[in-house]
Write a structure and sequence with these properties.
Helix content is 43%, strand content 16%. It is of the alpha/beta class and 301 residues long. Helix 1 packs parallel to helix 11, helix 6 packs parallel to helix 7 and helix 6 crosses helix 11. Bound molecules: nicotinamide-adenine-dinucleotide.
């Protein structure tokens, strides 16, 4: 079997276009332009690139984009004061604090200070709680993107066996909650799980969010299963000369070539889950803006 490749890039482009159209309607009909504030502390080069991309894509979706670049030595109180200001700003519907923060800042305290209704990353404990009990809230972008791709690929997920490898608060746990909400039978695997390959082989849906390059092998996969690879891992280039120069390539948590021989559907890395994450950030910002205006967030086709 050769798996169908789930094209996250194309799916994300379609989702972003729908969010833009819905956002334009919100502005035309209710006078509300969704606004996203991104806060970055320090000079981490990877974070700078992520933040620049988010700003560009937010603007391309017709939304207001504010980026707050703070120096490395910004104090926690200064950062909390900015969060308070953004919480109170009616033109800002989403606040995202780029992680990691410098060591002298307590990340949990900062994330906990964001108004849960503006918490477009979905990391606030109030949003984690809403997700757990099935109340409307804001859902972490990466697992939300995975869930949308799964529903698009498979339709009704009810009754399917899902195994999520990884139990982080930002991917594994909310992913499991979303699959449970779709009536899957969900198992969360982690570093202490016994006989992970045997468990993985029970999965109709296998989500890998481990952070280990090509960790999930082809013979871990049930024939015909749908495999979602969340991992983003930098490894040396395949070309020894380039590798010697320090050139890298990106691979997922799944050994793609092997897995694609067995799976029914699989997301590639890059071009799978990654592009969906930012599309879902825009969707969450639009959702938050709708709710602030008392409008039901219903995305058109
Ligand atoms: P994390 O380090 O917080 O969590 C990793 C999880 O993997 C842990 O729960 C751990 O128990 C589990 N694990 C580690 N070793 C294991 C083993 N040997 N067997 C079974 N389980 C094991 O990572 P995270 O933040 O959840 O991210 C996971 C991966 O997803 C990383 O590669 C990260 O870069 C990627 N990621 C991608 C996106 C995206 O936009 N595509 C977003 C967030 C994270």
């Amino acid at each position: 079997m050769t798996a169908e490749r789930i094209d996250g890039k194309a799916f994300a482009a379609r989702l972003t276009a729908r969010v833009k159209a819905a956002s334009d309607r919100l502005q035309a009909e209710h006078g509300v332009k969704p606004g996203l504030a991104v806060v970055i502390v320090g000079e981490d080069p990877a974070s700078q690139i992520y933040v620049r991309n988010k700003g560009e894509q937010t603007q391309a979706a017709g939304m207001r984009s504010d980026t707050h670049r703070l120096a490395d030595d910004t104090t926690q109180d200064q950062l909390l004061a900015l969060i308070a200001q953004l919480n109170a700003d009616p033109g800002i519907h989403g606040i995202l604090v780029q992680l990691p923060l410098p060591d002298h800042i307590d990340s949990a305290a900062v994330l906990g200070a964001i108004d849960p209704d503006k918490d477009v990353d979905g990391f606030h404990v109030v949003n984690a709680g809403r997700l757990a009990v099935g109340l409307p809230g804001l859902v972490p972008c990466t697992p939300l993107g995975c869930s949308l791709m799964l529903k698009d690929a498979l339709g009704d997920l009810s009754g399917l066996n899902a195994v999520v490898i990884g139990r982080s608060n930002i991917v594994g746990k909310p992913m499991a909650q979303l699959l449970l909400a779709e009536s899957c039978t969900v198992t969360i695997a982690h570093s202490r799980t016994r006989d992970l390959p045997a468990l993985a082989r029970t999965a109709d849906i296998l989500v890998a969010a481990v952070g280990r390059p090509e960790f999930v092998r082809g013979d871990w996969i049930k024939p015909g299963a749908t495999v979602i690879d969340v991992g983003i891992n930098r490894v040396p280039s395949l070309d020894p000369a380039k590798a010697a120069e320090g050139k890298t390539r990106v691979v997922g948590d799944v050994a793609y070539a092997e897995a694609a021989e067995v799976a029914g559907r699989i997301t590639p890395v890059p071009g799978g889950v990654g592009p969906m994450t930012i599309a879902c950030l825009l969707m969450n910002t639009w959702t938050a803006a709708c709710r602030s205006a008392g409008v039901e967030p219903v995305l058109g086709e």
